[in-house]
């Protein structure tokens, strides 16, 4: 297609915390500075900046990209913000990718930041207006409704049990114990998860990711720059993204077909024909425990309804055949919306370079896939990366 | 000269966690503000008619000739084939529960005394799988099942105002 190869050459992040003392700009600055330091670059080496951040309503700052620009190193540079809801964190590197793949730029900083704690009394308030103002909002929906509706449909369609879904919380929170930035890493059990409060049946409190503050940044480079900058570039082999209709009640929620469409686009570009065999490590989006399973299926890492068995059999564990969310995911590391998605890309970067420390998956993983999701169960964003 | 590779382990991670007390008891400096935003939304030809018919105690859909889809809520164009829709079609006020939840909390995480039962209801007479979000009521929450037949419970005619809430809830048929 006449596009250039693009590599990730540096990554940085802040701790993910319930409420950070730092401002959104300061969080962006810290993550970005670490990403630049990690590849011994400075802002002068950067051609353009992409910022991903979710609703302006979290910060209460309209046009928050313009406000955040200083922190993410964008002053005086070609700078754009992207926002595709929860899918933003995996879309931001795609936007960075096409800036470089097109030949327009050689280096790009990709920064994602979210500060959910500003929104009072609870950041869920920022989501109340995503429902249709005339036909839905009058019923007083809250965000948990749609997750609970989708989870119930998914469970019913395949006969999946609550125990099988709770096992995802156990796995990911356990993995997060080894992540230095994690907010909610802990050793827990299926029993503990199922004894936690039922927020909206079948969703239990311990199946939900927390609200978080945090930032993540990457440095992207063209092949020529990447080869000079580091002996271990990690290539962006494939990208895909799709948006489904906002009439979410007219789609069968048991399966995220838009994730499959995005994954097919990314796999085609990366030359992946059998994702279940060719992908060594995956970071499916896991804001809720069932979502990791749902998204493994959408990513075609297993058949429909088969994901719970892979978790039960230990296949998705850090030492399993197909580690899923070795970072600890959103359930364990935390969920500052856009930053959480980019954290998954950073995790693949560290894993594929063999730099993930205690979280390192065994063997020499060569191919990874990360995915995020959002809006009214609409958007799928997928990136395939290769060592 | 080859650059030194710095791995994740070489960094001290930044970001300072505040405790709940530090924030709620004012031990750190914060400022507050409350934006007020008010809107008046035009409903357009499709939803305006939908609301009018709700006031009449009926559900109305739009039909796409090319896809042969009877769509609810009604819309002036089909989002799949992207052609204008051509016909109004009344559908029934009964359906089946596609999925549901028993919600025990408000949006700001306060407990509810009795659970709300949001559901996606596939409406009889609309195309297969064509659902709307509404509430289930007038029954034991523990008895609600996916696949259950339900019917609309309407507000008394004099109290209807042309809103989705003219249906109070759906109840087992």
Q: Could you walk me through the main structural features you see in this protein, from its secondary elements to its overall organization?
A:
The complex is a heterodimer of chains A (387) and B (173). Chain A is built from 14 helices and eleven strands. By secondary structure, chain A is of the alpha/beta class. In chain A, strands 3-2-4-7-1-8-11-10-9 form a nine-stranded mixed beta sheet. In chain A, a hairpin with a 4-residue loop joins strand 10 and strand 11. In chain A, helix 4 (88-101) crosses helix 14 and helix 6 (162-176) crosses helix 11. The longest helix of chain A has 16 residues, at 143-158. The model of chain A has no long low-confidence stretch (mean pLDDT 96). The model of chain B has no long low-confidence stretch (mean pLDDT 93). Chain B has helices at residues 20-24, 44-55, and strands at 59-64, 69-71, 87-91, 94-100, 102-105, 111-116, 118-123, 131-135, 149-154, 167-172. Chain B has one domain (44-172). Chain B has two helices and ten strands. In chain B, a hairpin with a 7-residue loop joins strand 7 (118-123) and strand 8. The chains are: A alpha/beta (387), B mainly beta (173). At the A-B interface, strand 1, helix 1, helix 5, strand 5 and strand 7 of A face helix 2, strand 4, strand 5, strand 7 and strand 8 of B. Strand 5 (198-201) of chain A pairs antiparallel with strand 5 (102-105) of chain B, so a sheet runs across the interface.
The percentage helix of chain A is: 25-40%
Shape of chain A: globular
Main pleated sheet of chain B:
5 strands, antiparallel
Radius of gyration computed on alpha carbons of chain B: 24 Å
Q: Largest interface, per-chain counts?
A: A-B, 77 and 59 residues
In angstroms, what separates the terminal alpha carbons of chain B? 78 Å
Largest sheet of chain A, order of strands side by side? 3-2-4-7-1-8-11-10-9
Oligomer: heterodimer
Count of distinct strands of chain B: 10
Mean pLDDT of chain A comes to: 96
Count up the helices of chain B: 2
Counting DSSP H or I runs of 4 or more residues, the number of helices of chain A is 14
Helices and strands of chain A, in order, run as EHEHHEHEHHHEEEHEHHEHHHHEE
CATH superfamily assignment of chain A?
Answer: Thiolase/Chalcone synthase
- Contiguous runs where pLDDT drops below 50 for at least 5 residues of chain B: none
CATH architecture classification of chain A:
3-Layer(aba) Sandwich
Tell me about the biggest sheet of chain A? Answer: 9 strands, mixed
Structural class of chain A: alpha/beta
**Under the CATH scheme, which class of chain A?**
Alpha Beta
